[in-house]
Amino acid sequence: MEIVEPAFGMRHRLMDDTLVLVLHGEIDAWAQQVLGPRLTRLLAERPSRQVVVDLRPVTFLDASGLRLLVRIRRHCVARGTRACLVRGVPRVWRVLQLTRLDVCFDAWDALPAEWEEAGPCGLCGAPFPCVASNRRAATGGHNSLDF
Question: 126 falls in which pLDDT band (50, 70, 90)?
């Protein structure tokens, strides 16, 4: 029997009063089904003044991925919270531009240096996201990786 590795993930950390969400990999229908409920729970459990979504590690984004971003935006609007995106690779950012979702968020080129995640994966020593973190996440969690 072959084990199927997810091609996506999400990490989070709280920096001061900012919730930083780092999405990575292919944010598609499967990712939306798995990450959507976890994202909703995380947003409810971690009140913050702003939510920053780092898209730099995202390699693919489709309509389902856009739904995740809309969910974040709606949450922020309902609570009077600032919503920000860190621009990703050009093809991912282009999807946001074509759908005009880019104008619904404040756009950043990078996270502040002190917010950048430092340190390797605790399981394998590789930088996040790594294969070990995805495998471990599928079976119960890994450091700050939500999936």
Answer: very low
Which domains are assigned to the chain? 8-119 (3.30.750.24)
Least confident span in 35-49, 59-73, 84-98: 35-49
Residues 120-125: contacts with CB under 8 Å, at least 24 apart: none
Q: What SS3 string covers the chain? A: CCCCCCCEEEEEEEECCEEEEEEEEEECHHHHHHHHHHHHHHHHHCCCCEEEEECCCEEEECHHHHHHHHHHHHHHHHHCCEEEEECCCHHHHHHHHHCCHHHHCEEECCCCHHHCCCCCCCCCCCCCCCHHHHHHHHCCCECCECC
Distances, alpha carbon 12 to alpha carbons 63, 67, 91, 97, 100, in Å? 22, 19, 24, 25, 25
* Residues forming a β-bridge with 8: 25
* pLDDT higher than 50, residue 140: no
